[in-house]
Amino acid sequence: MTLKIKFQLSFMMFLEFFIWGGWFVTLGTFLGENLNASGGEIAKAFSTQSWGAIIAPFIIGLIADRYFNAERILGVLHLLGAFLMYQMYGIDDFAAFYPYVLGYMILYMPTLALVNSISFNQMKDPAKEFSLVRVFGTIGWIVAGLIISYVFLWDSPEGRSAGMLKNTFLMVAVASAVLGLFSFTLPRTPPRVSKDEKVSISSLLGLDALKLLKDKNFLIFFIASVLICIPLAFYYQNANPFLSEIGVSNPTGKMTIGQISEVLFMLLLPYFFKKYGFKKTILAGMLAWTIRYLLFAFGNPGELAFMLIIGIALHGICYDFFFVSGQIYTDTKAGEKYKSAAQGLITLATYGVGMLIGFWIAGKITDTYLLEDATHTWQTIWMYPAGFALVVFLLFALVFKNEKVEYKT
Among 292, 167, 286, which Cα is nearest to 242's? Predict the structure, then answer.
């Protein structure tokens, strides 16, 4: 890659995840405090991510891969997304807000695959080069959180009461418009599939890899992947509202510690994976979920604030040790023939079905422990995902048979 192309791809990744982190983290807080949304309604809004993940393969497989250059469809999707984000900026009613957030996530989720496709198309050795580009996405997410908390103070008690969190949608609308226009300057990434080539729904959704479930170990891993997404949904949906409600200062900025942790533990993952093996690595990821939620349950913004910070910092272990290790395991079990299908199946099962169930459960439990003064019994709420993650951990530890899995970059 030339220096120009490295800059283009890095800036693309920066904006792609700046856009996601610039509104999704504070969505629950905004909906609860500014649109008076219930836990169920907040869950419905977050579930649009799952619907987007389910629909994304059709947009990529039926349109992007067959008829248009990836960089052009990326540009169109982000320009349309900028329009929808601007509409969300001006809405003060959940019923009117929901169709826009649903439409936006249906447009946004396919762009995650598109930016990867554009990047890989320019790389001679993706195993070495991709991480250096992808890290700018994490930096973008971090910068978005820091801007919200420390530059504009939109998530401060005064900012939230004044309705300033709606400005996150305006900020993201501008960033999305910039990326939309910038996308048309990216290196050409032509369609990879012939227009005449037949594409089945089963191949788009990765259902061709269902035969892998005949392997008992892979079946156990598959079920665990779906179940662990239930406690994961609690974090996405409730972490920012929780920190805001109990009085943690600059909650969105502090949550970027989770992304910094993600980068650090990604670097440690190869060592841990090779030294302890797949089963112990993934069990460490599961156990981290339980520990994180117990820290949230018993921490406070005063003298026990360190417990909340540690809980946020565990994000790297929670995500990398389970999901990245799981991708490596899936790749190993699938082999060359079903590699793409297997990864698609796991993505559909986790970000699609698993998260959809998780958001619904999180919404129900959050509403159950809503108090008359509009606050929540957070200690009880966090015990649910802690307990659930512990059950998944114990079942996996007892039923999954250890097997040697080679770490692959």
Answer: 292
